[in-house]
Amino acid sequence: MPFKRPVLALLLAAAFAAPAAHAQEAKPGVTIYATGGTIAGAAKSNTDTTTYTAGSIGVQSLIDAVPELKDVATVSGEQIANLPSNDITQALLLRLAQSINRQLAEPGTHGVVVTHGTDTLEESAFFLDLTTSGSGKPVVIVGAMRPATAISADGPLNLLQAVSLAASRQAEGRGALIVLNDRIGSAFYTTKTNTTAVDTFRAAEQGYLGMFIGTEPRFYYSPALPTGKLRFDVAGMQSLPKVAIVYMHEDQDNEQIDAAIRAGAKGIVLAGNGNGSVPTVVKKRLEELTKQGFPVVRSSRTGSGFATKKEEGIGSGILNPQKSRILLMLALSQGADLARVRSYFNG
After folding, report:
1. Which residues are catalytic?
2. CA spacing 20 to 30 A to 126: which of 89, 99, 232, 263?
């Protein structure tokens, strides 16, 4: 006997409603950790993209400004800090990494997003790449080149794409990721290459991992991690050893190197010329420090390329000065001696 139309309509409605409800429950959990930066910045004029106040907007306001977030994930937010990225400290990074690791251990969490100012975003992203993601769950770092008050502000779409990536199964097992301007990059390799352009984040030698079509991530490769990538356990740590960066130039002497050591630096990174080269007078000082077991990493100020092995000091390999500093701090925090530090950079 055929169903009467009202009964059939009710059954059909129930059949279609059930999957919708199930889909709502099945949305992946994503936690947004907000630290401030341009993505949370505000200016008096909507054409002002350089003299705004970073970190003016709270995490809940960022979430509320992008209602589409609820379509891709069950989103929660935590305000870790609200400041320009130049004021990020090692204590803040340690607290952030520890909080992320605890959150990733929760069964209902599929991934996390960190909103961050772009000036030092690559440093925090590299730090998180080495200290989180042990579970393989996505850790996505996102920022913006234009404040929230600007015409064509890039923050809202960047945030939506970052959450979409953190919610995606395709993002698992790739380490920490950076998302801006429709591009997906490895936090291990990506760096800021332009002061104001929206396409500033790039990896000159390694390229991007993928791109976005709207809110859909498209990866070029299957999941893989950088060769020789390390992971450091920072649970319970409150501080890291001090490491200074000294910029090399013509007619350089040892004054800044020795001043850094007197100020308490436990290691030094040189932003060297070319392939990490230094003047002869500096090389002699590095030879002395190497014999003493004091770590000096020789990176390059050129912006890309490979700093090869050195007898006086340690070649940084593929890492630029700012990332070399992060790795050296973490290595020293584990009690690594000069030989071990050298293996981390040249292994």
Report:
1. 38
2. 263
